[in-house]
Amino acid sequence: MPQQLKHLMRLGTHGEKKYFKDFKEYYDAVIINASMIAHTVNSMSTFLGCELSKPFIIDPQTYAFQSYTHLLQQSKNKKDISDVKVKKSFCTLIENYGEMLKKIIFDEKRSIKSSDFKNDDNQNLKDFCKNVLKYQLETITSETQNNSEYSEYIEYEIENCKGNLSLTLVPAFLIAPYFYMTPNTYSDWIDINIDAINISKELNSKDIEIYAQIVIDKDILLDDSKIEELCDKYNSSSAEGFLIWLDKFDEKEVSEIYLEKFINFLKLLKCNGKPIYQVYGSYFSIVLTKNILSGVCHGMEYGENRDVYPVGGGIPVSKFYYPALHKRLLYRDALDLLLRNGYLEDLEVYNSNVCNCKNCQEIINTPIEDFSKYGDVNSTTFKRKSGNRESTVTMDYPTNDAKDLCLRHYLYNKITEYKYVESKSYSDCAEDLIQSYNKYYDYLGDNVDYLKTWHNIILKI
Ligand SMILES: [Zn+2]
User: Fold this and answer.
1) Tell me: the pLDDT tens digits for 188-239?
2) pLDDT top residue among 71 and 50
3) What is the Cα–Cα distance from 51 to 140, expressed in whole angstroms?
4) Which residues are found with C-beta within 5 Å of the ion, ligand 1?
5) Cα 111 to middle of ligand 1, angstroms
6) Distance 407 CA to ligand 1 centre (A)
7) Which residue blocks in 98-181 are alpha helix, DSSP H?
């Protein structure tokens, strides 16, 4: 891999593309789900290959086929209950991933099982690896060359680049097919995961590295012998680097023991010195980029943790990323905190105590008036009937401007976090955390206990 990819961002929706362009100079690489590319291959190829041209990584999402029900979506026509289908984005992906998967998902309508791969010569797994790698490697290149408005320009560039192509048409590295493991399913999947890496490495004739994505339930961390065996197996595989995704692992929520075991796990996995990326991480993981993790990925305000099989979203609310807490607070809670501390009294107090990011510099002149730009809402009133009673309900939704400002403020702060960690020692980082804890404990109570936990753990590294 040519350059260090420390600050990674995950593209989740088409609406987010503009932020990836606006902040282009500040982050190192983009992670994107294969299903999103499959769904809108033409526009995604143009965006990744030509418009953005930053290093990118495609997550092949092979774990998704372990849960058939999570692949389904209900028809828009709610009256037609017979019409439950596999999501369109996944249909395209399944077509690309080969006959075995098509048969299981489309014909047999079931989840993939470890026994599907247990045939004599490993042929099913070999075919699957071949298709999954091919998809990552070729989709953007072939689509941009064939169907993009830039196709002539790309052909010209490729012919004349003399090995120094300014376009980014292939991923920074490929990810071998991978499957999710819990303490109960670990023994079913571990060897398939390892075989998938080794087969992928053998199949891959190109000069591009093969990484392993390790997706596990956080409870595996607590089982020392399993973790030892797991690290041993992955370290002996031909993986050239690792991506880590821990299920139900919010670094701000889990207890101290999990974070401690997480560090142990990373240290064991790092014994060969191969790069490790945390694919859904908060500031805690960013601190680990000092010398344990090579990089950390986050999304556009969300994605500092993610469940493997998430359950629906909530109502959108404005949240303000509070820099000293490394956490998003509900706008009204942030406002309350600022008012009680007198941080909205004047600009200097706001800048030195709350935030001095580019976005705040642009929009905040008189804090007591301007801070509300982060919390602007539109109200919608509607009538709700329950039995014979009818009531009027009013809901507030953040305005598009407020959403945009909250996100820009968040992204500037993320950039600062990566840079800050780079220039400080572990003990400096730990000291900051405990200072914030002491400063805000009276106001926020146990809601900030993670700052103290992080402090304790980081001091021990
Ligand atoms: Zn700010």
Assistant:
1) 999 999 999 999 999 998 889 999 999 999 999 999 999 999 999 999 999 9
2) 71
3) 12
4) 355, 357, 360, 409
5) 45
6) 10
7) 99-102, 123-147, 151-160
pLDDT cut 90: percent of the chain above it: 79
How many whole angstroms from 376 Cα to the centroid of ligand 1? 16
* Nearest one of 404, 392, 333, 343 to 368, comparing CA atoms: 343
Phi, psi at residue 395, to the nearest 5°?
-120, 140
CB 427 within 8 A of CB 459: yes
- Summarised one tens digit per residue, pLDDT across range 402-431 is 999 999 999 999 999 999 999 999 999 999
- Enter the CATH code of domain 7-298: 3.20.20
Q: What is the distance of C-alpha 244 from the center of its chain?
A: 10
The Å distance, Cα 360 to ligand 1 centre, comes to 4
Output the CA 287–ligand 1 centroid distance in Å: 20
Task: Find the 430 Cα to ligand 1 centroid distance in Å.
Answer: 22
Angstrom CA distances, 304 to 26, 143, 265, 274, stand at 18, 31, 19, 23
Whole-prediction pTM? 0.95
The sign of the CA dihedral 427, 432, 433, 439 is: positive
